[in-house]
From TrEMBL:
<feature type="short sequence motif" description="Histidine triad motif">
    <location>
        <begin position="92"/>
        <end position="96"/>
    </location>
</feature>
<dbReference type="InterPro" id="IPR011146">
    <property type="entry name" value="HIT-like"/>
</dbReference>
<feature type="domain" description="HIT">
    <location>
        <begin position="3"/>
        <end position="110"/>
    </location>
</feature>
<protein>
    <recommendedName>
        <fullName>HIT domain-containing protein</fullName>
    </recommendedName>
</protein>
<dbReference type="Pfam" id="PF01230">
    <property type="entry name" value="HIT"/>
</dbReference>
<dbReference type="InterPro" id="IPR036265">
    <property type="entry name" value="HIT-like_sf"/>
</dbReference>
Length: 156
């Protein structure tokens, strides 16, 4: 079974639990990257491409993506929020909602610049490699606080 389907079926529980779930989508913190607020948004149904989504899934992805991005933009230290889809580690279609913090840019030795500008794709790749961890090490206070802050946006 794919990783995302395992999360949807609650066979795997991401750190901090599910942030949001409805009949079409699920939002949770990335399970193995130790960056506060790094979110993954997926349809519940296993599809492999954006073109496979139905209209309700597209609508819910758009609405929940906006909530997730808005929540991250309100967090201290977040300068920018990237949204991307790659699908290299799992074939289940999903969106990365990735916060960029100022501290990510502090080490100028990182190869994250192109033409003296931050290259979001390079930064994303660097962070996914440098901050990769195992799920049981994700329960740091800053990650859990970010999850709770984002979850609170979804409460009535």
């Amino acid at each position: 079974m794919c990783l995302t389907c395992s999360i949807v079926k609650a066979d795997i529980l991401p750190v901090g639990g599910i942030i949001y779930k409805d009949d079409y989508v699920v939002l949770h913190h990335c399970i193995d990257i130790n960056i506060p607020g790094y979110l993954i948004l997926s349809p519940l149904r296993h599809v492999e491409s954006y073109s496979d989504l139905n209209q309700m899934e597209i609508q819910h992805i758009g609405i929940i993506m906006k909530f997730g991005v808005t929540a991250l933009e309100k967090m201290d230290g977040v300068e920018k929020v990237y949204v991307a889809n790659f699908g290299e580690e799992t074939t289940h279609f999903h969106m990365h909602i990735f916060p960029r913090y100022k501290w990510m840019l502090n080490d100028l030795s990182k190869n994250i610049y192109t033409d003296n500008k931050v290259d979001g794709a390079k930064l994303f790749c660097f962070c996914r490699k440098h901050y990769k961890t195992v799920p049981n090490r994700m329960k740091q206070n800053n990650v859990l606080a970010a999850i709770e802050s984002i979850r609170n946006l979804f409460l009535p």
